[in-house]
Design brief:
Dna Ligase, domain 1, alpha+beta, globular, 8-stranded antiparallel β-sheet, 4-stranded antiparallel β-sheet, single chain
């Protein structure tokens, strides 16, 4: 099925903008590229931008792209041109957007507190800061109510996060940070919750198809015994978030979906030139130090992510069967040797140089058709 608005796409370009991509991730990206190319009717999958790049190319970037003017030259001007997202400033690509600044704080070009004001009911308590002095002031404010979580904005899967309960404990963390990096990307200080559940809410739009989902993430242990991302299970419906809200849902899931929608609406209103065909939001539910139940969006992912292999299988299922309305799709990351289920679609299996023996696969089940 060709792209709905911009004419047919004849080539899919894997656009890796990172300094280093591990082998296992590169293999998954290639498999995703092949699947997306099939949906779009592309003849070719490329790993380099062609000299004649233009509107006939569809892009699969490794990260959220920054700078619309730069990527317009490659033909990326709407969500029909990429699987992922495009923003105008670096901080917009990270969890830095999820909180306002403390009063009189420094900030980078393009910053607006209007996003956090509009999305306030969807957010946990916290601050984003862009200098060490502002970090100390924000920490002082938050520590009045209990421990806080220090969150590097460019890390994923919770890596690098620290919980502190005194101002002194912040100092060694700040000492390790580069001032210019901090000024460009920012740092998040946020209330720390206990007994946390994390939900995913998302939407993908490819080749004239839209599907939306809610899901949960699982943890597993790597070869060093550390807890790491182990996969996601998604309930995926054909259509937008309103179609998702038609499902029979627990109140906390309905709240999570509405919070993701509020967060997204604020981004669309306050971030000029923002486009995204892949939208994923992590929503945390847990107790604050006073014992009150809190729910809020932790961060967005406007790029391919850990759940994208399940998203791809759902898109393919909806493309193949126009009567199909709902599926359950899952991703799995398994360390060590494993026996794959018969219905697994394999995305990577091998002895990765950095992580060791690893398998990544996706499954789809529970097809539900319209009456």
């Amino acid at each position: 099925m060709p792209s709905a608005h911009n004419g047919p796409k004849t080539a899919l370009v894997l656009l890796d903008t990172r300094e280093h991509t591990p082998e296992h991730e590169h293999q998954v990206h290639l498999k995703l590229a092949d699947g997306l190319a099939g949906l779009l009717g592309c003849d070719t999958v490329l790993t380099e931008v062609p000299a004649t790049a233009g509107r006939h190319c569809y892009y699969l970037p490794s990260e959220t792209l920054i700078d619309p003017q730069r990527y317009a030259a490659l033909g990326i001007v709407s969500e029909d041109d990429l699987f992922g997202g495009l923003v105008s400033q670096p901080y917009m690509a990270t969890k830095a957007i999820s909180h306002p600044l403390p009063a009189d704080a420094s900030f980078p070009p393009g910053w607006t507190d209007a996003f956090a004001r509009q999305a306030s009911d969807a957010l946990l308590c916290g601050y984003t800061i862009f200098s060490k002095a502002d970090a100390r002031r924000a920490a002082q404010l938050l520590l009045r109510d209990g421990p806080l979580r220090v969150k590097p904005v460019r890390a994923s899967a919770g890596r690098g996060q620290q919980v502190i309960d005194t101002l002194a404990a912040l100092e060694p963390l700040l000492a390790a940070m580069d001032d210019s990096e901090l000024a460009r990307w920012g740092l998040v200080l946020e209330e720390d919750l206990s007994e946390v559940q994390t939900f995913s809410v998302g939407q993908v739009r490819v080749a004239g198809l839209t599907c939306s989902y809610h899901g949960t993430q699982q943890l597993t242990r790597d070869h060093q015994g550390c807890e790491v991302y182990g996969g996601s299970e998604l309930v995926v419906v054909r259509g937008d978030y309103q179609a998702l809200l038609q499902l029979p849902l627990e109140d906390y899931l309905r709240l999570a979906i509405n919070q993701a929608m509020a967060y997204e609406h604020a981004a669309e209103r306050h971030f000029p030139s923002f486009i995204a065909s892949r939208r994923n939001y992590d929503i945390a539910r847990g107790s604050n130090p006073q014992g009150h139940l809190r729910s809020g969006v932790l961060e967005q992912s406007w790029r391919m992510g850990g759940a994208s292999s399940a998203e791809l299988l759902a898109l393919q299922a909806f493309a193949d069967d126009p009567a199909l309305q709902r599926v359950v799709a899952s991703t799995h990351e398994v360390f060590g040797s494993t026996q794959l289920p018969p219905d697994a679609t394999l995305f990577y299996q091998g002895n990765d140089r950095e992580l060791g023996q690893l398998s990544k696969y996706a499954r789809i089940r529970q097809h539900e058709h319209s009456e």
